[in-house]
Amino acid sequence: MNSEVSKSRRVVWLTPWLSVLMACSSMNGTPQDADAGGLLDAQSLDVVDDLPQAPLPVVHGLSELPDQSPDPRVVEVDLTAASGEAMYVQDRWTRILAYNNSSPGPLLHARVGDRVIVHFRNNMPDDTTVHWHGLRISDQMDGSPRIQAPVPAHGSFTYDFVVPEPGTFWYHSHVSSIEQIDRGLYGAIVVHEASPPRFNAERIFVLDDVRLDANYQIGRFLTSGPDVGRGRTGNYLLTNGTAGTYALTVPRGGVERWRIINTANARTMSLAVLGANIRVIATDGGFLPTPYAPDRLEIAPGQRLELEVRVSDPDAEHVELLSFVLVQRSDGTIGEEAIPIVDATIEGSVDPVEPTYPTVRLPETSVPAEERQLLLSGGVVDGGVEFTINGVAGHGHDHPVTERVMQGMPQRWTITSQVSPEHPFHLHGQFFQIVERGGVPVTDEPGLRDTVLVRGNEPVTILTYFENPGRWMYHCHISEHSERGMMAEIQVTPNP
Ligand code: C2O
Ligand code: CU
Fold first, then answer.
1. Spatial CA neighbour of 26 closest among 440, 329, 415
2. Which residue among 95, 273, 318, 405 is least enclosed by CB atoms within 10 Å?
3. Which atom of ligand 1 is nearest to 302's Cα?
4. What is the Å distance from ligand 1's center to 175 Cα?
5. What are the tens digits of pLDDT across the range 348-388?
């Protein structure tokens, strides 16, 4: 990276229509072999109840929700949604919605197998629920407004669940998501492994974009035009709630774990790291069987990536996370620009710690998968835009469950889009593998996901085993689409 970009501290103003054209390079990585030495057996990751509990690894970047429980296997926290303020631009206050006065909300972290109790309070004038995106918990605690009566103004609800597997997840409102998530109601969840791989440091970066008007307030929500067609994008990129470049220091020599979450309404992020050697080690559903090193990291709304970052370049002075956006240049042409969203100045040094990753086997079965086709479409109905899945607009909170499947039965869903350039398609309560794009086997999107980017003219096939019984929503994670109908629900019947 040239020093000009690395030293810039600009807040880049993106015109909304341009920002939606943001580049989407695919992950053209070459898989690399994992370090074969001393791999943990998957069994050793199982939770052992009488194991003395080491403190949870520190995750730098976000404040933590204070755990009030004396029981080491219980994490008990208070979470309150209310209006708040953020200073995205110096000396300018923007009115937002916040969890515990902060956006992103504080980090919820726990160890796999822990019971998590969240005393949630709604201090907003509008209904809300909290959804724990990616956690395969009971559907009763999922925050689905089809199951849980939304928490009214000044109401409360206690979420109580056991976190079943390690990984990087997030929480967000699931009512009026277009506005509530965009105004700030989201936060990160880290579920640590029973014996986490050791790193020199762990960091988390929650990415978003926000559209500020001339008064530095969150711009009006439009009900037509590109905001609906493509979803709402912002004119400021946010990293852990900071507009412009998020600055920190890292020691030379370290091997770090960086967790990245895309919480934006509609912006797929295309990222790269400069000044360090990286490998993708985990996705939505945890560690990969084999880490890989793509040139660009593509992360659609809802998705997570975990990186192993080696600060090993002797000549580097900074490690930067760049976000590639399309901008209009002064001469009127449109070009890709690399915005440094994270600038880590290399300071001091440490001896590298060599992480040892668990052996991961993705689920398999000899039972043939049932095939299902999903068509994402939409049109104008009564003067407004309506989006559909297989011709049905899943409006409201009481739409009947139409799909049923037996727990553990593999299904291949081929999802085809006829409308809008992109749909980050999300399935609650389950993980899946991305197996084909345009009928061709996918090799560069490994691991387990709960969200997949569906592009126009390219059907995507996913394979899921429906391991978690219950009623589960599936929808486009562009809230402008899901709240206008691109949402449905499937019932997974317990297998006796
Ligand atoms: Cu993160 Cu139903 O969503
Ligand atoms: Cu969509």
1. 440
2. 95
3. 1
4. 10
5. 999 999 999 999 999 887 889 999 999 999 998 888 899 99
